Amino acid sequence: MQLTPLHIKGGRALGGEITVQHSKNAALPVIVATLLSREPVTLHGIPRLSDVYIILDLMAHLGTQHKWVGDNSLELHTPEIINTDAPYALVSKMRASFIVMGAILARAGQATVSMPGGCAWGPRPVDQHVKAFRALGVTMTEDGGNFDARREGSLNGHFVFELLTVGGTHNAILAAVLGDGVVVLENASIDTDVVDMVEFLNSLGADITGAGTNIITVRGVSALRGGAYTVIPDRIEAGTFMMLAAATRSRLRIRNVRPDHLRAVTAKLQEMGVSVTEDGSTLLVDATAGELKPVNVTTQSFPGFPTDLQPQMSTLLATVPGTSVVQDPVYPDRLTHVAELHRMGANITVSGYTQVIQGTRLHAAPVKAADLRAGAALFIAALTTEGETVIDGVQYLNRGYERLAERLRGIGASVQQNDLALAMD
Ligand SMILES: CC(=O)N[C@H]1[C@@H](OP(=O)(O)OP(=O)(O)OC[C@H]2O[C@@H](n3ccc(=O)[nH]c3=O)[C@H](O)[C@@H]2O)O[C@H](CO)[C@@H](O)[C@@H]1O
Ligand SMILES: C=C(OP(=O)(O)O)C(=O)O
């Protein structure tokens, strides 16, 4: 859905407190994982985001009935899988939806899922998903832009991922939960979103051990029961607000945080001279005292510095005097924020996946988000500048930040939008 642009006037410090939503990237696989149970499941902490509506559309096609209960709780029930395909029209809207393959395969024995294709910042390969399925006994064929997966019996065996993949680990676990086989995944992702999905599945009766380590063992069970679960807080949204506080030289109290999910981010901000204090599930970020220092940042899989915070960090560093170097080997083409920041006066030179950033004072300009975290980078940049910045491409922000304009206004930001309505279910 096309949304009207955000009009942001910045250049002044923000203050007060902001509450972080629950995690988009944990909620999506947990929602998909409900496909494995015939019983009703209630999920709490589901952010009202366009990505969530897209996955719910896809699941409705597969046979899931859903009902929102209050603002952020969702009842889901999949008594039967009524279709075993995930068509291009639905998968292409959100590449992460490829993990429905594992869940459909587990429940129905066969799945046909459209190839996810590339995205605004480069290729999003699924070769590791496919290799894992094959190694575990699934017959995989490719035809007409679709992957077809079939299993005769239960999944069984070992697979060593060639690289750390969050979605690949989700997919392989989902495929192995039901049945009587034993699957061992080595070099598995230790990401918080993998751990959250496993804790959810185990709460329904799955038998998965080792989540949060590089070796995950899935022992098949005959069926899952229903239940209720609350998704973890969104560490990427929390990190975005931490960088917003630093970039606007503000003092912000950020609530509903798992500080242990943000250690790499906290350490980098502290290295820059930002004060970050933990108090239970609250972080106090204070960038009001003294000049900030430039730093070098390289993205890594969890627990390293997340690629999903790279554009926001690059923007913060674009405001810090001196030279910083930011490298994103996880997604080497994730650079759509750079040309837009240039329009705002940023001094960033790009070579491969390396940005060399000379800090300066940014100025307002009309800009356009081409993807979600580039959009986050732009609202941070806008809030550092005097004058009015108009940000187009707001539909990308609605993929990941719930009621953004309203919540930014709550910490003193001047953010206007004529039509903030999200697509409703
Ligand atoms: C909805 C969701 O949770 N998305 C997140 C998830 O995406 P996603 O799960 O798609 O990302 P992966 O962890 O799979 O990707 C990590 C790296 O592995 C590569 N790769 C991945 C799979 C594969 O089969 N082959 C391959 O080469 C990717 O190109 C990338 O370089 O983790 C990414 C990395 O933390 C985040 O940026 C995304 O926000
Ligand atoms: C890139 C992201 O999501 P996706 O993997 O769905 O594109 C993100 O959350 O920053």
UniProtKB/TrEMBL annotation:
It catalyses: phosphoenolpyruvate + UDP-N-acetyl-alpha-D-glucosamine = UDP-N-acetyl-3-O-(1-carboxyvinyl)-alpha-D-glucosamine + phosphate. It is found in: Cytoplasm. Keywords: Cell cycle, Cell division, Cell shape, Cell wall biogenesis/degradation, Cytoplasm, Peptidoglycan synthesis, Pyruvate, Transferase. Pfam families: EPSP_synthase. The active site is at residue 119. SUPFAM superfamilies: EPT/RTPC-like. UDP-N-acetyl-alpha-D-glucosamine binds at residues 95, 124-128, 308, 330. The keyword Glycoprotein does not apply. Phosphoenolpyruvate binds at residues 24-25. Residues 9-408 form the Enolpyruvate transferase domain. The modification 2-(S-cysteinyl)pyruvic acid O-phosphothioketal is found at residue 119. Belongs to the EPSP synthase family. MurA subfamily. HAMAP family: MurA. This is UDP-N-acetylglucosamine 1-carboxyvinyltransferase. It comes from Deinococcus aerolatus. The lineage of its organism: Bacteria, Thermotogati, Deinococcota, Deinococci, Deinococcales. The gene is murA.
